[in-house]
Hints:
The complex is a heterodimer. By secondary structure, chain A is of the alpha+beta class. Chain A has helices at residues 2-6, 11-28, 30-42, 45-82; strands at residues 91-101, 109-112, 125-127, 132-139, 144-148, 155-160, 166-174, 177-181, 194-197, 209-217, 226-231, 240-246. Chain A contains four helices and twelve strands, in the order H-H-H-H-E-E-E-E-E-E-E-E-E-E-E-E. The longest helix of chain A has 38 residues, at 45-82. The two termini of chain A are 40 Å apart. Chain B has one domain (3-157). Chain B contains six helices and no strands. The longest helix of chain B has 26 residues, at 132-157. Classes of the chains: A alpha+beta, B mainly alpha. Chains A and B meet through helix 1, helix 2, strand 1 and strand 7 of A and helix 1 and helix 3 of B.
Amino acid sequence: MTIHYYTNWFSSIEKLADRSIRPVNWIANIPLRIEGWADLRSTDRSVIEKENLRLKQESLIYRGQLQRMAELAAENLRLRLLLNATELLTDSILVTEVIGVSPSPQSHTLSIDRGLQDGAYVGQPILDAEGLMGQIISVFDNHSVALLITDNTHAIPVQVLRNGMRSIAEGTSDYNNIQLRFLSPTADIREGDELVSSGLGGRFPPGYPVGSVLSIEKIEGKEFLEINVQPAAEIDRSKHLLLVFTSQDGSRNGNVQ
Amino acid sequence: MTSKRYYLIVIVSLILASVLQLIPTSAAWLPWKPNFLLLMVIGWITFQPNHWGIGFAAFVGFLTDLVFRSPLGLHVFLFVFIGAVPYLLSGWLIYFNVIHRCVLVFILIIFSGFLSNFMYSVWGVPVGYGDVPLGAISSVLIWPLIDRFLVKVHEKRR
């Protein structure tokens, strides 16, 4: 057990198990699919029309904001060139769906319906509409397994949006909580501060929302602050996720699929 | 009941338990989710101790490790440990009524939850001991259904 917990020696068995369990996962998802189908069938036409109208308006607003973003990105690029800085990586995304969730409260993983055939790779970040969810840890032909940022074995380099202060956010096995590590009592951090990925380590692209500071506690006898963070992503609720490809991956560039 | 049909029922019950275990649940409801696979182990060992013993518990434990993506051996250890209790008490349990068996299941699930959490805490994983009784309560609530099903299978088998 301990060898398995601390090493990857049994990864081949895990992969075999993942393949074998996939049909069971598919069956286990049937109630959710029926729920979705029933929701759609039972929803009043006028409600759907209203929602459609709202989505169209939202789309228009986002497209307008995107144009502004494009202008800012171009300006940012020009400034970086003037400073001889390296070019910012451009990200593209691929929409994916959750097909399975780990039933154990101690293991925060989920399965998604994209795999090698779609260009998914180990270490690839995934996010939902609100923020970063985690990263892929196993890839199969047509599905993958992702480790969530709330898993206690996961850590992500973050920075405070307000002042750029860096830290590490670690999972706590609680879907609604991650913790910041190694911040001294004199650190400039407040409740409500927004945290984004810092990009350090090269695994997660910089600038994606990770969460916001929920509480800061100074515990007697402890050298560092205990800082609880509410994840930005809806970790246990999101059904549709996004796989992020940076320009380094070479395949997709600035596309949404 | 033919042996073929009997073994088919056992296999289907394990598959069904795996499916129920894997149905996605929100974080708020996760602690309330019963351990269906452990309930099946307790059930089959209680009613058919001559057929299903420690080896069966170890096999289902291994299956559970794969389903839960937990360290291999954790559930093997837990299920063998928990399965040994109904195995040793099997001569008596069959004469207990369903309420007595519910009490036993409650105690076993509580014990299993604490043991599992203790194992995780040894590896430094934060665990919530307060959630353990929730799973035990929901397990006891569905146990009468499993009990009734297994009593019927047992009667037909005789």
